[in-house]
Design goal:
Blueprint (H helix, E strand, L loop, with lengths): L1 H5 L1 H24 L4 E5 L12 H7 L1 H13 L3 E5 L5 H10 L3 E3 L8 H10 L3 E4 L12 H15 L3 E3 L12 H14 L11
Parallel strand pairs: 1-2, 2-3, 3-4, 4-5
Helix pairs in contact: 2-4, 4-5, 7-8
Length: 197
């Protein structure tokens, strides 16, 4: 991060090059019929953002706006993954054009406040049950309660997902199925034999 302060001109030139290439990629995706783009940008630690809002606005926001603008001009939605706690940047990210956030740690937030912010801005959440505070516990009651809380808290703006690499987070497949089936039951769908069925 010191380069952002020590070499602002060089960083700006690099960002212009990268953003230009990504805009071209967005147009190629649109030309091929894609309906959205998804990118990953881990902006937070467990309890704070990695870069202050003022610097983020100055250094990064114009590039986000350029990318989301290119996607929206082509009728595409913009999904963004970010690990960690990003509350200080959410308003800026929403204003910059993010349509749906993919968070794996929703319990890092005050979830009712997060749901209210997203709902009031018509922004979605794509998320599993929290992969750090809930899923790795192996506590069936806690996992099922966490799944139901997700459905109830974010209903109407939630895309639930299963985490793609359970061994990496110390979660057994059976535990993931507890969450998955609790989600289906909370939504009145029933149960399934495997995630995604």
């Amino acid at each position: 991060f010191t380069d952002l302060i020590a070499y602002p001109d060089e960083i700006h030139r690099l960002h212009e090059i990268v953003t230009g290439l990504l805009v071209k990629s967005i147009h190629l995706a649109a030309d091929s019929g894609a309906e959205g783009i998804f990118y990953c940008e881990d902006l937070g630690t467990q309890d704070r953002v990695l870069i202050g809002p003022k610097m983020w606005r100055e250094v990064f926001r114009p590039h986000y706006e350029r990318l989301t603008g290119a996607a929206h001009e082509r009728g595409m939605k913009v999904f963004m993954h970010s690990c960690g706690y990003n509350w200080q940047l959410l308003d800026d990210l929403i204003e910059a054009g993010i349509d749906c956030f993919q968070f794996d740690q929703p319990a890092a937030y005050d979830m009712p406040a997060l749901a209210k912010k997203l709902r009031s801005n018509k922004v979605g959440l794509w998320s599993p049950v929290d992969i750090q505070k809930i899923m790795p516990t192996g506590d069936r009651a806690l996992i099922e309660a966490g799944a139901r809380e997700m459905v109830e808290t974010f209903r109407g703006g939630l895309i639930m997902k299963c985490y793609p690499s359970l061994p990496d987070i110390g979660v057994e497949y059976e535990w993931d199925m507890w969450a998955y089936n609790a989600i289906l039951e909370a939504d009145g769908v029933g149960t399934a034999d495997r995630c995604g069925s």
